[in-house]
Each structure stands twice: as C-alpha cells, then as structure tokens.
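Researcher: Next entry in the queue.
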Amino acid sequence: MGGLINLEPLSVSALVLNLLLGVVLSVVVAWYYARFGEALSNRRKFARLLPMLSLITTLVISVVKASLALSLGLVGALSIVRFRTAIKDPEELLYLFLAIAIGLGLGADQRIPTLVAVGIIMLLLIATRLFAPRSQRRNLYLNIQVRERGGGAGEANEFRTVNDILVKHAELVDVRRLDRHDHTLQMTYFLDCKDQNALAGLIDDLRNAVPGCSFSFVDQNSMPGS
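Model: Structure for this entry, 226 residues:
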C-alpha cells in the first residue's frame, strides 16, 4: 500500500524543460492549424487552446505518473466529467489528439520520441497538403434578393430568369427557400459549380440580367456541421 500512496519527488527542472518543449511543439502545431487548416469555423480561436491543452496534459501526467493511487483517482475523476461540446469536424479532433499526445509524451519524460513523432506527423500533414489532389468544385448556398417588376407576373418572371441563369452555369440547382415580402423576392439555392470560371460567369449574368439584385454566396463546407 505504501507504494500506492507515497509520491516520488517531482523534478522541477525536468517539469520546466518538458513544459518549454510542450510550448514549442504545441505552438508550431497551433500555427499550422490556424494557417493551413480547412475547418473554417473560427480556426484561430480553436488554435489558441491547443498549447494550453498540451501544457495541462504535461502537468497532469507528470504529477500522477509516480503514484498508482493518483492515477486511479484521475481515472475516477474523469469518469464523472461530462463534456457538452461536440467535436463535429474530424480535423479539429485530429489536432486535439495531437496536442494531448504531446502532453502525454512529455509528461512521461519521453522527449526524444515525442519530438521525432511530432516531426514525422507534421511532415505527413505538409506532404498531404502539397500532394493531395484538390477538387475545384464549389458547393455553395446562394442567397439572392430581387425587386419585383410588374406585380405578380413580374415576380414569376424574375424567378424564372434567375433559375435559367443558375441552370446554365451550375450542374446542380436546388431551391431551398423562397420568400416574398414588400414586393421583394428572396431566394435561397444550393448550387454545385464546376469551377471558379463557372461561378464568375454566373455572377456576371446575374448582374446583367437582374439589375439591382443583391446576392451572397456561402461555402457549404464552411458551415457548422457540414
């Protein structure tokens, strides 16, 4: 029982060294994610949390690694914690695990293996970004607002004109919402455009055929939960 309860003295110098290495590694990972990540839902805010996660994990592992009793207590404490925020983006989950792995490795005083492993993982991420084929297709939501010209018949004409333009330039056109208020027609479409040139042609035709309209495009891949 004495081995379960007694704590070995924690080396402050080793802890400081591990924390400094954790800062360097996690800041590099956070910078790469904020700069090159594809999850567009507030990457910078999420990246700022990664160094803190690594350092906290390093501290926890450094404290509990010398005592089985503390390790069991940590497992019991974590078993009653409920995390309400769901991680829906696989990329965010990847970087969370990487930050935790940095903390685990350094907290266990495995400095060289941790440095080597993080280096290999970062090289793999860079190589994937450089050499993976990128799709030029654009999945977009289009919100467009048009003023009616000529009453109810004008409303039908504007709707038909917009539809004809979208069908001409997009491979998929799906009406998601249609509202009319105070002689203004507001429409929401889901579009699948082949490339940037098709999108540019669509914008030019909308401006020429429906003067005075206002519209906005939202990248479907940047929406939460998509």
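Model: The chain has two domains: 2-131, 138-222.
Researcher: Noted, moving on.
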